[in-house]
Design a protein that fits this description.
Elements: H1 3-9, H2 13-31, H3 34-46, H4 53-71, H5 73-82, H6 102-107, H7 109-112, E1 120-123, E2 133-136, H8 138-153, E3 163-167, E4 182-185, E5 190-194, H9 203-213, E6 217-220, H10 222-235, E7 245-248, H11 255-265, E8 272-273, E9 282-283, E10 296-297, E11 300-301
Length: about 300
């Protein structure tokens, strides 16, 4: 544990709220700069346009592959070995490139990384196995946030609305006696709930805090939402909040669990995955098909419906 984490965890609750908000302002500066504004506006403008989906996908695919060829030693060597002729003439030419196995990425990540400076280091969630470090630039982060916020905007949720997030971060010290298992990030109007303190003894307090905050959106780990929803059903607790949308991520859930969350929290669930590490965001598109829908079945490649 680093010094910053120790200072935070041994601080009183009011100071932890302040530190959480200060960190929120730092994230706001990093995430919502010029690259974010430009990409978000581009995505919003596209909603009114008629797009040749296949042509747009092919253009973006070729741009990406040429970038990989010129800046990644791994793909430069792979494309040479395959005698790959770029640019592709059709989307199905992508089948010429074998899928990248996670273990291959783990073993050769130094070669896969591009030669461009990427000082920001993140980690994949590790939901499907071991976590992997991800390097990206500030512009990468802002573009990722623009796509995520655009996805949310298509479901009526705008940046700055009251938001509840379920996180696995250690927000609460093991030594804390006060039954307050959430912290306020006023910079983003976000109430953060740690999943590590959810238990039969604390669930009612969690539900009361959610209702009092009256969120306009809920996001984060669905396992926490499911446990709280089951508790609400068992105890006959009726929530009065009416979020516009619920965005679970990082974990799988069954059709029955999805319905349970919608019934208890009184909001529609829209799935999104892989938004945290800068990978393509896999998500529900609903009536708006500007969000990229990517489906993988085993190792079989399938054309996406539409990419923004």
């Amino acid at each position: 544990m680093g010094i910053k984490e120790q200072v935070y965890l041994y601080s009183p609750v009011f100071l932890q709220n302040l530190l959480t908000t200060l960190y929120g302002y730092q994230l706001q500066r990093d995430r919502y700069g010029p690259a974010y504004q430009q990409r978000f506006q581009e995505l919003m403008d596209k909603r009114a346009e008629t797009i040749d989906v296949a042509a747009d996908q092919l253009k973006r695919l070729n741009e990406f592959l040429l970038f990989c060829q010129h800046h990644s030693p791994f793909y430069e060597a792979l494309f040479a070995e395959l005698n790959l002729q770029l640019p592709f003439e059709k989307l199905t030419d992508l089948k010429q490139i074998p899928p990248l196995e996670k273990e291959t990425l783990r073993q050769h990540i130094g070669l896969v990384r591009t030669d461009l400076p990427a000082p920001i280091i993140g980690k994949t969630g590790g939901t499907t196995g071991k976590s992997i470090q991800v390097h990206y630039t500030k512009a990468d982060m802002q573009i990722r946030m623009a796509h995520l916020d655009y996805f949310k905007a298509t479901h009526g949720v705008e940046k700055g609305m009251r938001r509840i997030s379920f996180t696995a971060q250690a927000l609460v010290s093991e030594h804390q006696r006060t039954p307050v298992y959430w912290r306020m990030n006023r910079a983003l109007n976000q109430l953060l709930f740690t999943v590590k303190k959810i238990s039969p003894r604390t669930m009612t307090a969690y539900l009361q805090a959610i209702d009092e905050f009256d969120p306009e959106s809920i996001d984060g780990l669905p396992s926490a939402m499911i446990e709280l929803a089951y508790h609400a059903k068992r105890e006959g607790i009726e929530l009065s909040c009416r979020p516009r949308a619920i965005f679970p991520t990082a974990e799988m859930m069954t059709r029955e669990e999805r319905q349970l969350i919608e019934d208890v929290f009184h909001g529609p669930v829209f799935d999104q995955y892989a938004s945290s590490e800068g990978a393509p965001i896999v998500s529900n598109a609903g009536a708006d098909k500007n969000i990229c829908i990517t489906r993988w079945a085993s190792l079989n490649w399938k054309q996406t419906e539409k990419c923004s």
